[in-house]
Amino acid sequence: MDAIIxxxxxxxxxGRYRREGRTIGFVPTMGSLHEGHLRLISIARKRADTxxxxxxxxxxxxxxxxxYESYPRDPGRDAxxxxxxxxxxxxxxxxxxxxxxxxxxxxxxxGITNVLEGxxxxxxxxxxxxxxxxxxxxxxxxVAVFGQKxxxxxxxxxxxxxxxxxxxxxxxxxxxxxxxxxxxxxRNAYLSxxxxxxxxALCRSLEAARRRISSGERNGRxxxxxxxQIISEQPSAAIDYISVADPExxxxxxxxxxxxxxxxxxxxxxxxxxxxxxxxIMVE
Length: 284
Description:
Layout: E1 2-4, H1 7-19, E2 24-29, H2 35-47, E3 50-55, H3 75-85, E4 89-91, H4 95-98, H5 117-120, H6 124-139, E5 143-147, H7 151-163, E6 169-173, H8 193-198, H9 201-214, H10 220-232, E7 237-245, E8 261-270, E9 273-282
Parallel strand pairs: 1-4, 2-3, 2-5, 3-4, 5-6
Antiparallel strand pairs: 7-8, 8-9
């Protein structure tokens, strides 16, 4: 596996792959790779001739007081895991090169970025959209693979890919979970043992929502109340939001309609660690 740290070097390599007639699969990450990331890499491996994995902790998607400085970083371990999962190139750009002094070009996707994570983390999705657009321009992938756990991010990236005529196929992989249901996340490492034991409540609340919907519940507020009750039983939990929404527009769904799907999502702090999870549930 090759490691590339300069933007010009990655652009040159991407141009070479294209001249050779190779398709490019891309998995953008912030490093601290886990089983969820490795699943994305394996999917890209099946869909492209050359797989590029980026590791870049993007400072522009972190707000004041968030964990940019303390976000886990281990590029050596990431390289070993990425290579083992089938990556051909590890792209590790420098923040100063990606966002040099005086940078003032931004990509925004209005509407869907103003709710849920966007409401709780103002400016977050401007940073996400901008760095994804830059990475797409540098890597020039045919296919980019993202995880369903970041459902709102997926919606933003899909809108960006179409709206900017990137030609990139956005593939979404199911959320990968630990045996007790907790979604894999780099931030899980922040949890103490006691907090880790409480964290699967997020998944349990989603499972309860699925069962309640399958049993015929069509009132979005009652589903939220059910999930809130389950989360509130955890002594270290503080709910940021729980939402039942349209999967594409992210608008609240008050009454569930048969034949449609709803995005049920939540963000919860367990101790000081903010966790997110979601599920798309079909209404029969």
